[in-house]
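Form P-L/3: holo structure prediction, ligand iron/sulfur cluster.
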Amino acid sequence: MDISLITKSLVLALLGASLTLFSIRFGRVLARILGARSESQFTLSDIGQRCWILFWEVLCQARVIRDRPLPGLAHAFLLWGFGAFLLAEADHFALPFDYSFVDRQSAAGLFYFWFVFLFALACTVSIAGLAFRRYIVRSEWLDPISAETNLTLALIFVVMITQLPRWWISDESLAGRSVWWLHTAALLILIPLVPRAKNRHILLSPAALFFKREGFSAIPALRGPLDPGLVSGREISRISALQAYACMECGRCTEHCPAYNTGKELDPRLIALGLNYYLDEFGPHSSKRILEVAVSPQAVFECTTCGACETHCPAGIQHLPMIVGLRRGALSSQAWQDKNAARLFQSLSEHGNAMGVAEAERERFIAWQELPVFDGSQEYCLWLGCMGAFDPRGRAIIASFTRIMRHLGTSFGVLSKEYCSGDPARRLGNDALTSELAEINLKLLRHYGARKIVSICPHCVRTIAEDWNQLRERVAGSDQRRVDATIEHHTEFLARYAELLPMEATGRHVTFHDPCYLGRYRNVYDDPRKVLARTFEVVEPPRTRERSFCCGAGGGLVFLGDERGQRMNEERARELVATGAGIVATACPFCTAVFRDAAPSAEIGPQFLDIAQIVEGQIRSEAERKAIAT
Ligand code: SF4
Ligand code: SF4
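OUTPUT (holo model):
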């Protein structure tokens, strides 16, 4: 290409300006992330798994394509395009200087530029498809269209479409030169836009996925008794800052959030974007309160901690450490005061249970059901939990499950004394109280030498198995809070003994509601279905397994009183009833209780039963049939 020295200098100057602006903007973002404080207990373990996630979820775009196949593929083409066009773009800028990185006449060059042509074609179609979805279809989960988003999409479109005519027009012709300048101008404007707003996910979401905290919905431990939780910029950790900046505003978290879907103020996307806004406006060293300027306190306390947002976020954003961190901060700074929460905390510290019932009630239940007391000689320690010990619906589940254990000949006992596992206190941000409860319980479990614990409550299972282990900061440098026993949920227990349970087709339909803390938190999806399928035909509701819709009770919300907007239990109960199944099976005492509360408005139909109650019913029917036959 024959170009004057002035034009060459202009190209170099514009390229320099574009790259400088990019560096300044991206440098500002990096400074805010790196300026945030380090995260307690963060370790970069399992590098192999992290590299695999980078390969599978970033490079192959597997999750994005799986969740939304067509838009996912279009998005993948654009990402792959960045790699595919790298050499072609270098060649593009070398052209005025009569230099070429790839010899277009060679076989390899010919192959590469044909590949670029076809790729540019696929990318042009992709961007047109994404634009159609954004401007014409207008998915309600996508963010409102900003001028910057419009400009970015238009520039990418120009960059792609100007790759195409080079095959049939000469670079030396007027048309060829015009296309070259159009392509150059679009690229030079696009480069400094990459570190802005949602565009920066291109650079940051791979990092966010790689540095993601281990474990699902893992709430980082406080740094010590004086750590106030997430109050201001000074407490935002580097991982949270990186995740906040990596949000691509795709709205997948919003789409699956039960709170948002029932008319609450909470939108998980706005939690990440709120921190992003805070860091942009005030920086990581500001003492300005986050809940005053960037995130709604009301929204923070509407979260059920169901984990749907983290499950579906393709950028590796972990919302719960942010939400629970803000709850901790609101509690410690007294920015949130709720009389129901105050009553709950008082019940937990005075009576050791969330219901505020005297301990004697638990003893009466144990005596009434003739439950053996655990003394270390039995195989299983049956954890009752607050629901199993005090709530009539939870007690019925315990009664059924103990009859199954007796039927199977498994030895078990219940602790003579047991306190709440601390689940509601932990999720509402009261770590001190959770810690006290965990400590008392651990002493009891150790004293009686429990080796295997089984529980009907997935919230207790999670808290005992994982949260207690994270509360070590109060016992300096020791491992004293670790539970020596294994703990499992009763559905896992039942699945293991499935061969010994009744197996006779009843011809009846049952639908199963996946409790969040059993499915998403523990990855237990097949066990309950395996048990139910022995006697029933299992029909699935539209939102099932990892897409399950929360019953609304988690995160301590069941103790907080009335919900705003539509009730989550009613919304989910209606969906389960609509499957037409005669029985709705659950595997969490909270789910069972709140679904039964919703039954009147769910136009009553099926029975809402825990899986233990269903299995016990089958055992009884089988025994009756055998008795009649003999
Ligand atoms: S954990 Fe569940 S309720 Fe909370 S923000 Fe995420 S999706 Fe919404
Ligand atoms: S938090 Fe994740 S799922 Fe939600 S909008 Fe951002 S990138 Fe999408």
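COMMENT: The chain has four domains: 5-35+68-193, 233-332, 347-494, 501-629.
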